[in-house]
Amino acid sequence: SSLMGGQITVMRGRLSRVGNRDVLQFDYDVEIPGIPILLRQRQVTFAGGGKSFIVTCTGTTNTFATYEPVFQSILSTFQAPAPSMIPSGFQRVGIWTYAVIGAIMGGMVGLIKTLFSKKEPA
């Protein structure tokens, strides 16, 4: 799959639980032209209060497992309002499709912004 000039090489998605919340979790590896490292992202979507909240954790494919306990700790402290409605059937598929597309696009925009932002001298 290609996204904003980058290449998603591995993608896994599943319904999961964080604490007592059902969440949608996507893990994917991304190659970005001009950047010599392969990145791994985990995006977790929490539904709450009629909105979706997406938390993105990013590392290199070589270091992601090292930081995974930190990412899990961060996710376990995230608080979202209770879902205002729980759609079923066809409606649920549509909502999750839009959540997935939004999660991927938001993560890529944030990643590119972070990678290309100028660092201030210390």
General description of the model:
With 122 residues, the protein is an alpha+beta fold. It has two helices and five strands. A five-stranded antiparallel β-sheet has the order 1-2-3-4-5, with helices on both faces. A hairpin with a 2-residue loop joins strand 2 (6-18) and strand 3. The model has no long low-confidence stretch (mean pLDDT 77).
Count of β-strands: 5
Helix/strand class:
alpha+beta
Largest sheet: 5 strands, antiparallel
How much of the sequence lies in strands comes to 35-45%
As laid out across the biggest beta sheet, the strand order is 1-2-3-4-5
Number of helices: 2
Which properties best describe this structure?
122 residues, alpha+beta
List the helices and strands and how they pair.
Elements: E1 2-3, E2 6-18, E3 21-31, E4 39-48, E5 51-60, H1 64-77, H2 89-116
Antiparallel strand pairs: 1-2, 2-3, 3-4, 4-5
Q: Gist?
A:
This protein is of the alpha+beta class. Helix content is 34%, strand content 38%.
